[in-house]
Amino acid sequence: MGSRFERWVHGDWSTPVVSGVLVLVSFALRQSAGGAGDVTLSPQWWLDAGEHAAVPGTLFTLADAVMLAAAVTAGWGITITALRALVARVVGIDLLVAAAAIGAVVIGNFWEAAAVTFLFATGHALEAATLGKTRSALAELVAVAPDHAVVVRDGEQLEIPAAQVRVGEVVLVKNGTKVPVDGEVLGGTGAVDEASITGESIPAEKSRGDRVYAGTISRAGFLRVQATGTGADSTLARIIHRVEEAQDAKARTQAFMDKFSRWYTPAVMVLAVAAGVVTGDVVLALTLLVIGCPGALVVSIPVAIVAGIGRAARRGILIKGGEFLETSAKISVVAMDKTGTLTEGRPRLTDVVVLDPRLGRADVLRWAAAAEAGSEHPLARPVLAAADEDGVGPSEIPGTVVPVPGMGIMAEVDGQRVLVGSPLLLERYGVADARGVSQVAAALAADGKTPMTVAVGGTVIGVLAVADQVRADAAEAVSMLHRAGVTKVVMLTGDNRLVAEAVGKATGIDEVHSALLPEDKLDVVEQLQRQGHTVAMVGDGVNDTPALAAADIGVAMGAAGSAAAVETADIALMGDDLLRLPEAISLARRTVAVMRQNIVVALATVVLLLAGVVAGGLTMSVGMLVHEASVLVVIVNAMRLLRSSGHATVDQPSRPSLTSVGSRG
């Protein structure tokens, strides 16, 4: 009980509650005294001051004392904050309110002093409460952080704090419990709810070799997980850190408004003093101080940014900060890599064409796999997998592997130079097209496959073909991008023209650029920017790094498993869901619209209050009431962003046929 009372005393609501009670007591005392104010306390110097100055013989009454206490209670913290800001050479809203309240007390207008400070303190408490709700997404992320873990040590199960799990330890995840670490499933099967990380509501099936993330929840089954990331090194911790930074990062509009406020507040003080000197009306000067408070203007931008970024985080979309949120609202062109973005990124080997009559399928596959064993490119995996299935997989990594961006690789295997890649790679190393390799590659490409020529010691021995599937949601994502206001969706790929155009036609892409090297993708992005477009680039962050860096917004997909993507991408889509991209752009546009609405509300309020002062009849207390109401209006308006945008679930189109995965680009 004592701790609850102590929390309340130090909370946001204690000051306005106590001040409000004192105001009511003051009114009650005045009412009980018949309005005559005859409960005298002294000192006599208040005789001709304040709201009772027109009543001869009025003294400083008990009701006045209680009303003054109400003003001091509510205004003390405001004044301290204003003085601290002044020490830091910041002239803020609190200084305007404090100056007005002190001035009202000096002239004996205790009710106005109490009303202004009480309303300001109440508004501050309401702002804190509603702003807390706009940060609810961050609070939800923190809430899902696991507390305990069951680890296997020396053959025994031990329950320990999750932060004490060591990398490499085996953790047991039972049905209904939180996954305490990032890790790889060693054994068991289960279904894991990953909504806190990826935003996906449907549990993901997990089995041996699959990745799991801290903070997700097991909905079925039993898993043995080897920890790869714990505590602050987990994906959840990185997301929380990124959202915290993003919600505090300022948009360009907010930075401008902050600069505006630094000049605006002193200007209001000068205006108030000038009005008081010219008219001789102290009350008018104090009223100008109150109504000139730019509170709604100051809070209008950050509250929208916090709400927008919080809403995005709930949906598995990490936006780096207010500046990137604002830029995302202007995106007019989206450029996409093909492999892993428009396609599923899980290619498989479909063809092995033997061109050397002295060799067989196994020989071609063995040489290609031996070279690819030292490659990190996605195309290496299906070749190595097929070689393992045929029993010709390499036993060791080649001594020399030279990647040739956009073309393929050159490796030294058993003293022989092995080339695996596009026909352009053969030209680069002076290998003659003596066996019609170009025609074979073109025929495979026409079937929607990615051809890879294989040459050993300067002689072409065969062509491999690898194919991927176009994402089931790729066409719908492109359509949604258009509906979200994107004028053009462009594909940038290192694959050949035939394959690229086949994918473009299947997905509804507006413009296809094929056979591109990494620097070519950069050139296309820069050309689009010179045309006046705001460009978002979606890629894998490896071969697309130059284009991602040059684009106005760099987007990483499937970032849940990549710490680098979470930290470096301007927008990170945590789940492997392309539909999140148009959702992110739509949310950015809605957030910027709310920011503009809030600025209009804030400026209109100040103009109307100034008009009320000029027309006469507007008191300090009424001005502060309207001011606080405008602050709440902009906060409530921003909180609309936390609600669902109302997008209906899209029907998934039928799965397209196999298509190319891209040639090293």
TrEMBL record:
A GO molecular-function descriptor: ATPase-coupled monoatomic cation transmembrane transporter activity
Keyword hit for Protein biosynthesis: no
InterPro entries (alphabetical): ATPase_P-typ_cyto_dom_N, ATPase_P-typ_P_site, ATPase_P-typ_TM_dom_sf, ATPase_P-typ_transduc_dom_A_sf, ATPase_P-type_domA, Cation_Transport_ATPase_IB, HAD-like_sf, HAD_sf
Gene3D superfamilies for this protein: Calcium-transporting ATPase, cytoplasmic domain N, Calcium-transporting ATPase, cytoplasmic transduction domain A, HAD superfamily/HAD-like
Predominant location category: membrane
Keywords: ATP-binding, Cell membrane, Membrane, Metal-binding, Nucleotide-binding, Translocase, Transmembrane, Transmembrane helix
Membrane topology: Multi-pass membrane protein
Bilayer-crossing regions: 59-79, 260-278, 284-310, 599-618
Location(s) in or outside the cell: Cell membrane
Recorded GO CC terms: plasma membrane
Membrane keyword on record: yes
Pfam family, one: Hydrolase
Boundaries of every P-type ATPase A domain copy: 145-244
Family: Belongs to the cation transport ATPase (P-type) (TC 3.A.3) family. Type IB subfamily.
NCBIfam families from the UniProt entry: ATPase-IB2_Cd (TIGR01512), ATPase-IB_hvy (TIGR01525), ATPase_P-type (TIGR01494)
Protein name: Cadmium-translocating P-type ATPase
